[in-house]
Design a protein that fits this description.
Length: 466
C-alpha cells in the first residue's frame, strides 16, 4: 500500500524538502485519539449503509482499538522524522498493519478535510473540560481559600497605582476568582456550541444519507466503550462551511487570551506586592529563582513569565485570525497552521494555572507592613468627604474642602489628625476633631461601604458548589 493517502495521479516523487515542509505529524499527533474516535464512528456508519459487512466492521474496530491502546501505553513516537505527513496518514498506515487491505475501505466517503475538523473539535471539547474542571477550578478554589484564611486583612486599594481607598484583601482575591468564573463559563459556552459532524467529505458532502449518519452515530455512541462522549455526532448541515470553518479555534484562543490576560494581571499585582517598597507578601521560595551574580536576590521569575506569556497567547490569536482572513472557501492547506497556536495556547494557560495554584496556596501576607501602609491618611480622604456630605455639605464643595485640607497637611508636614480643631474650622465649621480622628481607621472605612451585595455572592458561591 502507498505510504501516502494520495499519489495515484503523480508520476514523480515528492521533493523531500516539500515533504518535510508540508508535514504536520510532529504536532497534530495530539489529535490521534480523537481521529481514531472519528474513524470508529465512520466504521459504524459505513456498515449501516452496506459499505462494510458486520465482520469487516468488527475487524476495523479491533484494529483501531489496538492502535489506541498502543498510543495510551505511549508506544507511538512522533517527530518531524516520521515518514507520514500527518497523524491521519499514520493511523491509516498502522491500521494497514493490523487489518491489511481492508483498510482501503475505511476512506470510503471520507476526506481528511472532514476528519481534521472532527478530530480538532473533539480535541477542543476534551481540552476545555480538562482545563475548566482541572486547572481553572483549582486556582479559583485556591484563591477563595486564601481569601477566607486572611479575611480580617485590609489593604490599601489602588487606582492609577496610587493609594485610593482601603479595601478588604478577600474582596481583592475574590475579584480574581470572579474573573476565573467568567473564563470558565466563557469556555463552557464555546464548548457547548461546538457541533461535531460527519459527512462533509472533501467539501461537497458524500453519497451516504443523513439518516445513515444519524443511525450509525447513534449506534456508535451507544455501543462504544471506554470513551467520554457527552456530545452528539450529527450529519453536517453545510459541508462547505464544515470544512472551511475554524471559528471555534479562534473563539477558544480568544477566550484563552482573556484568561491569560487575567493571570498576567494577577501576576503583576503579586510582583508589585512582593517588592521591598510594598512588601505586602512573601512568595514561597519554591516559586522564586535567584540571581547568578547578586546573592541577595529572590526574583518572581515564574510570575514574570506568566505576565510575559500573555503576549504569546495574543500572538497565537492574531496568527490564526490572519491565517484565516481572505482564504477562499473551502479547505486550504494554510488551515493546517491552526493547530500549533491552538495546542500551544492550551499548554501555556494550563501550566500558568498550575504554577499559580501552588504559589497562591503558599502565599503569606505581611500584616505589619500592610498596617504601616494603611497609616497613610490620603486613603481616608474620600471618607472625610462623606463625613461632610453627611453634615449636608454638597459633595462637590466637600471634595474641594478636603482637597485644600490635604494640601495644607502636605505643605506643612502635619497629619490631619494632628491639626488643632480651630485650624480645622477654618476649612469648614462642620469639622469636629474627635469625630474626624475616628475616620482614619481601615475597618471603619471598609465597613462604611454598604453597596457590596455579599449575600448574593455567598448564594452564588453555594449555587456553584452544588
Ligand atoms: N494535515 C492536514 C491539516 O491538518 C490534513 C488535511 C489535508 N487535506 C488536504 N486536502 N491536503 O489540515
Amino acid at each position: 500500500m502507498a505510504k501516502k493517502l494520495w499519489g495515484g495521479r503523480f508520476s514523480k516523487k515528492t521533493n523531500p524538502l516539500v515533504e518535510e515542509f508540508t508535514k504536520s505529524i510532529h504536532y497534530d499527533y495530539k489529535l490521534a485519539e480523537c481521529d481514531i474516535f472519528g474513524s470508529l464512528a465512520h466504521v459504524y456508519i459505513l456498515e449501516k449503509c452496506g459499505y462494510l459487512t458486520p465482520a469487516e466492521k468488527g475487524k476495523l474496530e479491533e484494529g483501531l482499538d489496538s492502535i489506541r491502546q498502543r498510543l495510551i501505553e505511549g508506544k507511538g513516537k512522533f517527530s518531524i522524522h516520521n515518514k507520514e505527513e500527518d497523524i491521519h496518514t499514520w493511523i491509516q498506515n498502522e491500521l494497514y498493519k493490523e487489518v491489511g487491505d481492508l483498510v482501503l475501505k475505511l476512506h470510503t466517503a471520507r476526506s481528511r478535510n472532514d476528519q481534521v475538523v472532527f478530530a480538532t473539535k473533539l480535541y477542543c471539547k476534551y481540552a476545555i473540560e480538562d482545563l475548566c474542571d482541572g486547572c481553572i477550578s483549582k486556582l479559583a478554589i485556591a484563591l477563595n481559600t486564601l481569601a477566607k484564611q486572611n479575611k480580617e486583612i485590609i489593604i490599601p486599594g489602588f487606582t492609577h497605582l496610587q493609594h485610593a481607598q482601603p479595601v478588604r484583601l478577600r474582596d481583592y482575591l475574590y475579584a480574581y476568582e470572579e474573573m476565573l468564573r467568567r473564563d470558565y463559563r466563557r469556555l463552557q459556552y464555546i464548548a457547548q456550541n461546538i457541533i461535531i459532524t460527519l459527512g462533509a467529505g472533501a467539501l461537497a458532502g458524500t453519497p451516504i444519507g443523513v439518516n445513515e449518519y444519524r443511525w450509525g452515530a447513534e449506534a456508535f455512541l451507544k455501543e462504544v466503550k471506554n470513551w467520554k462522549k457527552e456530545f452528539n455526532i450529527e450529519a453536517t448541515v453545510n459541508s462547505i462551511d464544515t470544512v472551511s470553518d475554524r471559528d471555534f479555534v479562534i473563539e477558544i484562543i480568544s477566550a484563552l487570551s482573556i484568561l491569560a490576560m487575567h493571570l498576567s494581571r494577577l501576576a503583576e499585582d503579586l510582583i508589585i506586592w512582593a517588592t521591598k517598597e510594598f512588601d505586602f507578601i512573601e512568595i514561597d521560595d519554591a516559586y522564586c529563582t535567584g540571581s547568578s551574580l547578586m546573592p541577595q536576590k529572590k526574583n518572581p521569575d515564574a510570575l514574570e513569565l506568566i505576565r510575559g506569556y500573555a503576549g504569546r497567547l495574543y500572538g497565537n490569536l492574531v496568527s490564526v485570525l490572519t491565517m484565516m482572513k481572505g482564504l477562499p472557501l473551502t479547505y486550504n492547506r494554510d488551515m493546517q497552521l491552526d493547530k500549533e497556536p491552538l495546542f500551544n495556547s492550551f499548554e501555556i494557560v494550563c501550566s500558568e494555572l498550575r504554577v499559580l495554584e501552588g504559589l497562591i496556596k503558599t502565599l503569606k501576607f505581611n500584616k505589619k507592613k500592610i498596617e504601616e501602609h494603611l497609616r497613610d491618611e490620603s486613603l481616608y480622604a474620600t471618607d472625610l468627604v462623606y463625613y461632610l456630605v453627611d453634615k449636608k455639605i454638597p459633595f462637590k464643595e466637600a471634595h474641594t474642602i478636603i482637597g485644600k485640607l490635604i494640601k495644607y497637611s502636605l505643605d506643612n508636614g502635619i497629619e490631619i489628625k494632628n491639626i488643632p480643631e480651630d485650624k480645622l474650622k477654618v476649612f469648614s465649621d462642620k469639622f469636629v476633631k474627635k469625630e474626624i480622628v475616628t475616620l482614619f481607621d481601615p475597618r471603619v472605612s471598609v465597613e462604611s461601604k454598604r453597596s457590596i451585595n455579599r449575600k448574593a455572592r455567598t448564594a452564588l458561591e453555594r449555587a456553584r458548589q452544588e
